[in-house]
């Protein structure tokens, strides 16, 4: 939905009319060919995004793959590309807003302050300032809101397409647009290529997808899928919208007036009319053949521009922040506000660029500048993909580009072909008139790169080597050379409990012939870029190094990773999925119940509920040798799992295992016989061990009996209860109460039952 929202964003509303004026009915061919060319670069984004799931995208990849100064200039181009695209959305919002007001009111909005500040420009300036402030406050659009906005846009565009196709087919001569070359492509190949370049910015969605890589679950699988699924959805929508817009409208004097063509013949081709209507093309078209079409489309357009404006301004400021943090731009740009923890100077710099571009230049020039910058940026990503295959041949690549290097080379060639045709289609006459828009866009791009050369030679080049020497990696270098099929994941945050947690991990992993993966999560505030957490990686490296040493002393292959995340539970769950971990062992200090919806603590609760693996939660007690283990049981897979874990720890420590079952004081002989059978099953789950005993406990309070019995043991291991999820929160009432009230160390065990077990427990059929 992130990718589709960016591709089917403000571009479809703002650019379709302009592009129709360039290509004619061949706009359909332009969008189809763009989809094919975009797929070539999408393959490079998929391979690099899956291999490097972190914020930074093209800038980070080029820095990794190519020598300086390519990384700097890619980041410089990316910063400007996002800022100019944001200016396009802001200018489109200003135009839409003023059009909406004038359509439904008698307010006169035909004036200009200082000769150039029209109402559209004033609204544009205000909305840029507003979203600059919103980004400063840290109110980034949430994923759920983005999904809603995207869904609304798609529904409204679907309505537009349905009524547009009906209107098109109602015209007796509709097929004439597509039956001869002169009618289909009235401006020839040049017009088609110019339109392709003009609307190519619509495919920047996969750049937004990879910018979210650090927050995506299983990025090796989901980033490539998201990229290609977005293309598969976006391209047909553009094709249908173009077909409906070109074929569905009737040329009327009123539409000619809106297009500034008063007195022109109503026999003019519809594609020419759309071109002159510009950013209002499909909105004016919708007013003709869709019930309430003008209102629906302009509201959708306003929502799309607001959503896209917020996202691109956020992305632009974060690129400047990243380059500043890497000292390729002045370090002041990476300063964070003490109040909001946002990179306020980067936001101010990006907002200023956006405002100047949006106010000073017409929409066509802004769109052309943005499109050319993205064509250059995407070409550099393809170069990086080729270079990375050579420089990093052993890099783990969950997705690989087929027919390497043919696919990325095709992407480079076709994208570089589109850029000059795009500029030529806008006019390359020297000056600042209607025939010079391409020239002005080219001058704007050249001036930006000239400024980049000055910044690089005067500031960045001297600091680039320092960055390469001092940059702190986010992955701990120490790692066991041996790797095993099974993995036990151990999140560690507290140095005081790390040793006790690792001792238990070693006992369990050694018994199962598994490796240990220790992680520590550096938590970053939600409104702060994740990379800001790098400054704390050094502290966590030391903690993980000690944990890794314990694992290796126990003869278990151990690796360690520092992860950056806005939410520790999400980072842990993502790690489980990324590394296909079999078990998670977490520590807990006994807090909880501060809120009714929190049992053990929000992070522990989320991992226990959502991790698709076995889960062990150890309530940390006093350190010491494990000589005696209590295993309360009531049957079921969780109790069996608890007994298995007890057996692993008991054999490692030569400890005695006592299995206990609590029956009511008035239990009959049948209930006691069943209890004895469950004790025998639990003993069998413990496995071969010299010291096992079973105990039938009489009592009406199960928790009280287990708590009393645990006082005579060093460790108690209890499985989750078999209550339905409607009744239990995490492990179930009994294990959670035992863990709170019992002395010593407690381990709560929960086996991963898969979807079938989840449904059974939810319906109350037991675990």
UniProtKB/TrEMBL annotation:
Residues 488-617, 628-747 form the UspA domain. Pfam families: AA_permease (PF00324), Usp (PF00582). It is a multi-pass membrane protein. Keywords: Membrane, Transmembrane, Transmembrane helix. Coiled coil: none annotated. This is Amino acid permease. PANTHER family: AMINO ACID TRANSPORTER-RELATED, INNER MEMBRANE TRANSPORT PROTEIN YBAT. Its main location: membrane. Signal peptide: none annotated. It comes from Halococcus dombrowskii.
